[in-house]
Amino acid sequence: MLFTPRIPSEAPLLYYVGWTLIFEMFFYTVFAIALLAKRRVAVVAGASAFLIAFTLLFGPAPGLSPHAPAASGIAYLADSIIIEFLFGMIIALVYRAGGRLPLWATIGLLVAGVVWLSATAPAVPRLYSAGIAAALIVAALSLSSMSSPKGSLLMRGVVFLGDISYSLYCTHLLSFAFVAWVVAQLALGPVGNAWAYMGIMLTTGLVVAAATYLLFEKPTTDFLKTLIERPRRPASVTTGLRAAAVLLRR
Q1: Which residues fall within 8 angstroms of residue 169, CB to CB, at 6 or more apart?
Q2: What is the pTM of this model?
Q3: How many CA atoms lie within 13 A of 73 on its CB side?
């Protein structure tokens, strides 16, 4: 829960998804410090240079499996999986600069990403296999110049799935475990009912994620946004109020 870079002998409840949050929090910290540079290119260059140097100095060899690294402490944080964040920053720079892809390039990158993943996993280390494939797919979808029917019910549904994705990420294992427990209590074996079993699991996972998002994540996010975006009083107004308060006390 404290994002400590150490895997205990008894893994925490959300270990199988929570280990990635350690890298996310570390990246957010590095990126927040890099924001002091203010210019977009300088921010990305500074964060990239630090992460690459940090990985080379303290990290293990880049032979990664799809699972959590076995190291602990600083070597854990220096795993080359953090280089995948650099791909996202580069894509963001291109997007912010107005770079867009025509339809043929969008489809080409999507196909290239899927083909690259199929051809390299699991023989090639994760950074060069799933990392590059994910970057190609994300770039294709993020930078596509294709217009989308934003007002359509289908598009609103897709956007909502994106909105609840973090809640889904954090709760889906608990939802699946709950369904498995119910099935076991009712002595209903999933063998022979695989499609129904998967359908119930998927539905339960989405319902729990949507409820978590609507009842907890979104209200919490909105509340924090109001605190951050609350307009500050001008210095002259603050000084005047303090002066008035002094006079009243007299």
Answers
A1: 17
A2: 0.72
A3: 2
